[in-house]
Amino acid sequence: MAANLNKVFLIGNLTRDPELRFTPQGTAIAKFGIAVNRQYKGSDGEFKKETNFFNIIVWGKSGENCSKFLTKGRAVHVEGRLQNRTYETQDKQKRTVTEIVADNVQFLGGPGGGGGRSEEGGSDTGTPEFSDGDGFPPEAGGGTGGDGDVPF
Known about the structure:
Elements: E1 8-14, E2 19-22, E3 28-41, E4 47-59, H1 60-69, E5 75-88, E6 94-108
Parallel strand pairs: 4-6
Antiparallel strand pairs: 1-3, 1-5, 2-3, 3-4, 5-6
């Protein structure tokens, strides 16, 4: 039997500041959107640009760090999985939304979204100086995980 795989890697820019909420059990959940740009040559030989938008969910301490350090326009690398969520609108229509549940979010560029120096005055590598390699400050936990519905 073949193994199943659900893995997503995206690099893009935040379209809005992260929204932080907590489950009734106290688990943090951050939600934000990113835009991912693609440039390609069309059949007519002209270069075309395409932008896709994705909703990102980050659980736990990593979600708290995203809320604390990320702002609209900031570049990020997101590693995670696709998840479908179904809900009912006020007029009783069922809707399904596909989101990326992040296992790892790495902050790229400076706090203003572009490349350049980090907030701690470090190198031009694109990874903030306070990172221990996973894109989060050292006090942050590793990946994220959650069980239950996203409360927004």
